[in-house]
Amino acid sequence: MPQTLEQLPFSQACENNKQPILTLLIQWLNNRQHILEIGSGTGQHSVYFAKNLPHVRWQPSDQLHYLDTLQTRLNLQASPNLQQAISLDVTQQWPLLTSNVDAIFSANTLHIMSQAMVEAFFTGVGSVLVNSGSLVIYGPFNYQGQFTSDSNRQFNLWLQQNNPQSSIRDIEWICHLAQQQGLTLQEDIAMPANNRMLHFIK
C-alpha cells in the first residue's frame, strides 16, 4: 500500500482545475457548513478545498475499493476540517451522516457513470441534501445533444471505448433529473478545458 504522496495515484486534471473550481466554491458555499464530496478519487480536490474553505466540514467519499489510497492522502495532507473518507456507492443505500448536509460537490463523475448510476446519484442527492442546500457539479456536458468542442467529442469516443455505458451527458437531462428532486439550476459557468460548473439549489 502506498505510504508517501509520490506513491499515490495522481490526477493532473485535478491539479489543473482545482483553483478555477475553488474560485466558484468560495462564492457559492461561503455560508455552507457540511459539504459531502461524491467521487473523491485521488483526494487532491478534498485536501485542497478543505484547506481553503476552513469554515466547512469537508466529507470525502468514494466506492469502497478506492478508499485505501484516498484515505492515505487525507492522512498525509490532513486539515482540521477534513473528515475521514466514507464508502459511498450511488446505487446502494447511502450512508447515514453525522450532521445535516447543506452542500454536495462532485467533479468529473457523471460522464463516468452509467445512465442508471446518474439517476441514482440524483435520487441520493435528493435524499440527503437539506432544503435550500447547494449541489455543485463540475465536468463536461452537451447542449441540445451537441458536443461543445471537438476535444469533448474525442473524449466521449474514448469514454465509450473503455465503457459503453459512459458518456458525456446532456445538460437538459441532468436538469430534468435535478428538478425531480426539487433542485433548480442557478448558475452554469464555462470552465477551462471545455468543462462547466453547475450550481443547483434545493
Automatic annotation (TrEMBL):
Coiled-coil ranges from the UniProt annotation: none
Short name of one Pfam family: DUF938
Entries under InterPro entries matching the protein: DUF938 (IPR010342), SAM-dependent_MTases_sf (IPR029063)
Protein name according to UniProt: DUF938 domain-containing protein
Organism whose genome encodes this protein: Shewanella polaris
